[in-house]
Every structure is written in C-alpha cells, then in structure tokens.
DNA sequence: CAGTGGTCTAGACCACTAC
DNA sequence: TAGTGGTCTAGACCACTGT
C-alpha cells in the first residue's frame, strides 16, 4: 500500500495517466484502499510517482467523474463511500413521493419553477397543444433526507392544471383527487452526462453520469396529462423492469405487480473496467 | 460565428474553461455550428481567445465526453453528426439479433470469450451454482453495420449449455431450438461511465456514458438460464418501457405487446444543459 | 512534409479548510 | 497560517493524418 505510488512508471503500458488511473482503481477494487480513506495530496503523489501534478490530476479527475473518489477543496481526496443504491420498479406508474414513502423515507422537494408558462416546442409536440395554449410547468429538485437525487421537469396542459401553485409534495396525489390520475405511461430511458447547471443542482461533479427518463402519461380516455423529463443521479439509482416473452414466440403475459426481488450485487459507484 | 472565439473572456462568469465550454455548446445548440463542421485547431482557438492550449483542451475535452464533438488525431475536431438513436422496447424479452433483424439491420458479433470457465462469485450467486459447477461464458461486442453498439457478457450454467462453441449469431435461437428459451426475465438498468477497456471495445472516448443492463432470464419452471451484463453505448440507445397503473390504486394491467410508438424528439448527442 | 490532436512538464496563483 | 484542491500558463515532444 505504501508503494502504491512507487515506480516504475512508463513501463510501456500506455499513457502515464492511464497507468496511474489503473493503479488507484485496482487498489480500491482490491480493498487496499477502503471507503473513507484519504489519498495523499496531489503534490505528494506527483513527487512519489515522478509525474507532474497535471498528470496526476488527470488520473484522479477521471476517478472522481466515475464516482470512485471525492475531492474536497482545502481538505483532501478520499475514497468514495459505498453509495446506497435505490432500486425502482420501472413497470409501475408511481410518483417520486410514493416511491420514497414506500421505502419509509421522507421526500424533499425544492421548486425551480411552478406556474403557467408559454410551452416550449418540445412541450407543444409532446402534449399536443394548440396555438396560444399554456402549460403548467413543475420543475423541482427531488431528494431524500436532504440528499438531492433527481431533477424533475413536468409539464401539463394548463387546461388540466390551471392552478399549478396548488401542487404540494405530490403531483399525482393532486391529480388523483381531481380524477386526473394517469393510468398508462410510456417512458424512454437513456444515459446522459450532466452539464454544469444540472450537476450543480444535484451536487455532483460536472460530467457525472445520469439516467435521463422522459415520460408521457395518459388519462383513461387516451389524453396526455403529463410530459416529464427527469434526470436521476447515475450513482444513486437502479431501475428494474420485468420482461416477458417476445410476442412472436408466444402470447404476451401480464407483468408481475409485486416488488422486484432484491439483488445481491455489491452496491457502490458504478463503473466499468478501469 | 467568426468571432465565436473573440474576447472578452474572464468577464467574471466563472472559470475560463467553463465559459469557453458554454460558448461552444451554445453555438452548437443554436445551429451556428452544424454537424460535420470543423472547429479551428486547438492552437488557433488558444491564440484567438488568449487562453492556453491546456485550457482550451479542457473545454473541448468535456464536449467530446458529452458526445457533442469528435476529435480525430492528425485531422481535426468536428461537430458530432446527429446520432441515429436506436429505440428498444424494454418490456419484451428479445435478443440483440432479433432486435436488429426487426429493424432490417444486419447484426455483427465479435467474440471476446466463448467457452466453459470457472464462474466468478457474481455468477455463482446469480445463477445459483454449486461448488465445482462451470459456466458457459459468451462475451462479445455487438454492433450493426460495422458500428459497435454494445458489449454483452452472458453466463449460463454449463449444464444447460455444455457446448458454448455451438452458439452462432443468436444465443436465443439456439436456446429455442433446444427448448430452453426463457419466458421471463428481470432487468436492472443503470448508468455508468466507460473505463478504458470498455470504451476501446465500443470505439468511444474514455468516460463516455453508457447504459448498463443486468438481466436474469428464467425458464418456465423458474430455473435461471442466463445471467447477462451488457453495456450499451449511451449515445446510441434509448430504452422504452410502457407503464401501467400502480397496483395500490387499482388492478394491474397487462403490458402492451405492440411496438412502442415512435417519438418526435430531435435525435442527437444526449447532454444536459451545458 | 506540415498540421493536427495526444501527452507531459514545471511552475504559478487563487480559494478554501483545518488548526 | 499551513496545506489542500482549483485554475491557468508557456512550452515541449510524440503519433498520426493528409497531401
């Protein structure tokens, strides 16, 4: 462990910053460096490895972006604690508030926008709006126990929600009270890296990975009631879904409505082979 | 457009590399820079902005990681072409080969491993193996028309697939011929940034974003037949899923087995507000 | 060959943290 | 105050591309 940063470097195994990145990542994976441990100061690592500080920072910075390390200005660099990963069933149409309540957690909400606005082109298209129609926009940072977990940007036709200020913690609770709860939704999931603004809202470094989920929710009659774009912290969320047989090989089956079984895999910052 | 890189910089709006990053990102978003356009050489940008090349590279590098720019050594830096995003229905249990065939595309496969091996601890746990059991491991890079799209690492109990070399393009086709086709599966989806090895396999820069999908597939009797971990290129894949009403508010419904409707959103490199 | 991106260095100053 | 990470510079050499 004490010679983690000893030479020889430049043993022909690619760029120096890649070699250092690999060494640190392996030390973490093997348990030689444990969560909460501090890394030596960058200047020390540079001196001990014979590399420049810029090169050291390139390796360390990549590990920070991957979520393996945490840097605190004025304090030091530390091995990231294992993240408690939240698993969410994708096949159920639930709200953030309900998800958290089911886990026995409190759900935080910080409003970014809550009012009537002129719709963006994407919202016009998604909600099927006409000229002059307005949207109720509900943008907020959602979290649990003070930790931000997701950015949620919801848009509803103003006709369905003329008083967005009436929305409290749970949009779905209000919709249900008004007999406007959606019964069906289509979600699209993709991966994205976070820009400066969104990263700041979630309290993660720029470039951190996230899950982007776009959801269109429908009323029983088929009308779209909600168009929501969310960004979930990639280091804090898993989404689980149960699949059934492909239709061309047999009849479709109904999805199970029970909770997804727990998974045994070790939780921690998600990263691929370093 | 010609003064995109003119001063004044350091107008108090944060670090210089963030300001430059924002300028370029906005130029792309606004259409001032179009897909295929070339950026000036880094040394030119440095000279015109008055920044050092290191700082310019920090801005450009972030945009490359986000998928907005593409760099080619010896050639130049270019605005990334709009990526053709593939949308895949998550609620159907299909194979990569079938997914591509349904789109009328040819499916490529490059084997990384195809044989019997001693199982990893994760595989023992996922497949419920006993001591001494072996696994058939099928690791490959999958793509379409020569473009790598995903890394797929499948493991099956050796008892169910004693001859992994018999697997051709489609594992599921072989399983079906042997009456071992799974009828149910549980998937877990998360986001991850790519390490050096996986990035190289997919032909994307280190740190690029990906969707990580872990799948456990079950036979009609409930036995696990397949444990697969896949990494899909984040810039090339959307996953779509249809949701139904949460069970506590009504009876569960069956999932739709028809293809997910097309989406109108502009395709392009996924990124959040820069 | 000239030009490009890829890597690396040595040194500097700043902002923040901990004592 | 001393030490830390955050930012930035000027300059160098290499590997590769295109002509």
From TrEMBL, chains A, B:
Q: Which SUPFAM superfamilies match?
A: Chorismate lyase-like, Winged helix' DNA-binding domain
**Positions of the UniProt region annotated as Disordered:** 250-274
Under SMART domains, the record lists:
HTH_GNTR, UTRA
Task: Cite the CDD domains for this sequence.
Answer: WHTH_GntR (cd07377)
Tell me where on the tree of life, at the top rank, the source sits. Bacteria
* UniProt xrefs under Gene3D superfamilies: Chorismate lyase-like, Winged helix-like DNA-binding domain superfamily/Winged helix DNA-binding domain
Record keywords, A-Z:
DNA-binding, Transcription, Transcription regulation
**HTH gntR-type domain location:** 14-82
Which InterPro entries does the record match to this protein? Bact_HTH_transcr_reg, Chorismate_lyase_/UTRA_dom_sf, Tscrpt_reg_HTH_GntR, UTRA, WH-like_DNA-bd_sf, WH_DNA-bd_sf
Q: What is this protein called?
A: GntR family transcriptional regulator
> Which organism is this entry from?
Paracoccus nototheniae
């Amino acid at each position: 462990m004490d010679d983690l940063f000893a030479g020889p470097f430049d043993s022909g195994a690619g760029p120096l910053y890649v070699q250092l990145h690999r060494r640190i990542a392996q030390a973490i994976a093997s348990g030689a460096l444990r969560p909460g441990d501090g890394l030596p100061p960058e200047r020390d690592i540079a001196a001990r490895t014979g590399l420049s500080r810029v090169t050291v920072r390139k390796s360390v910075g990549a590990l920070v972006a991957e979520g393996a390390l945490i840097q605190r200005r004025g304090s030091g660099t530390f091995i990231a604690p294992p993240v408690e990963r939240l698993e969410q069933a994708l096949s159920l149409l639930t709200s953030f508030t309900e998800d958290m309540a089911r886990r026995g957690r409190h759900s935080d909400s910080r409003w970014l926008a809550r009012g009537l606005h002129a719709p963006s082109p994407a919202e016009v298209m998604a909600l099927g709006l006409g000229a002059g129609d307005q949207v109720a926009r509900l943008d907020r940072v959602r979290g649990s126990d003070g930790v931000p977990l997701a950015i949620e940007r919801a848009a509803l036709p103003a006709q369905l929600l003329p008083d967005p200020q009436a929305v409290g913690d749970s949009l779905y609770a209000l919709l249900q009270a008004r007999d406007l709860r959606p019964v069906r939704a289509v979600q699209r999931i993709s991966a994205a890296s976070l820009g400066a603004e969104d990263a700041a809202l979630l309290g993660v470094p720029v470039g951190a990975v996230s899950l982007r989920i776009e959801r269109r929710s429908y009323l029983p009659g088929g009308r779209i009631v909600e168009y929501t774009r969310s960004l979930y912290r990639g280091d804090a969320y898993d989404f689980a879904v149960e699949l059934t047989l492909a239709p061309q090989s047999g009849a479709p089956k109904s999805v199970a409505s029970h909770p997804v079984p727990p998974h045994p895999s070790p939780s921690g910052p998600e990263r691929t082979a370093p």
